Amino acid sequence: MASKLLQLQSKACQATKFVTQHGTTYYKQLLEQNSQYIQEPPTVETCNLLAKKLLYTRLASIPGRRDAFWKEVDYVKNLWKNRQDLKVEDAGIAALFGLECFAWFCAGEIVGRGFTFTGYYV
Q1: Are 39 and 46 in contact (CB under 8 A)?
Q2: Which residues span the membrane (predicted)?
Q3: pLDDT above 70 as % of the chain
Q4: Is 119 left (phi over 0), alpha (psi -120 to 50) or beta?
C-alpha cells in the first residue's frame, strides 16, 4: 500500500512539473484563440454585468418558448384528432420517441440508485 502511495505521489509531482512548465503557454494560446469572446475590460464588474444580462435575457425568452411549446401541443392534439389519417411512419416515430423517454427514465433511475439493478426483473 505504501509503494502505491509513493507511486501516486511521484506521478502527482510529475504532473505538477508539467503544468508549471507548459501551463502558461497553453493559457496564452487559449486566450489568443478565443479573444473574440473576451469582454473588455476583463474585470469582476464586467463578469457580474454579463451574468445579469444572461439571466434576464433567458427570462425574457420564456414567453417565446412557452408559445412554441403550446404550438407543439396544438399540433399533437390535431394529429390525435385526425389519427385515422396517420401514416405508419408517424406512428413508428411516436412509438420510438415514447420508448426513448422510457429508456431515459430507466437510466435515470439506475443512476439515482448508484448504478444498481435492484428491483427490476432482468
Answers
A1: yes
A2: none
A3: 95
A4: left
Residue range(s) defining the domain that contains residue 29: 1-36
Q: Is residue 100 part of a domain?
A: no
| Residue-level pLDDT at 119 | 61
The whole-angstrom separation of Cα 120 and Cα 58 is 40
Q: What is the tally of structural domains in the chain? A: 1
User: Do the domain assignments include residue 115?
Assistant: no
For 18-75, the pLDDT digits (tens) are 888 888 898 999 999 999 999 888 899 999 999 999 999 999 999 999 999 999 999 9
CA–CA separation, 110 and 105 (whole Å): 9
Any domain includes 24: yes
Does residue 121 belong to any structural domain of this protein? Answer: no
What is the distance of C-alpha 70 from the center of its chain?
Answer: 24
Residue 12, C-alpha cell as written in the block: 502527482
pTM more than 0.85: no
Q: How far apart are CA 25 and CA 80, in angstroms?
A: 60
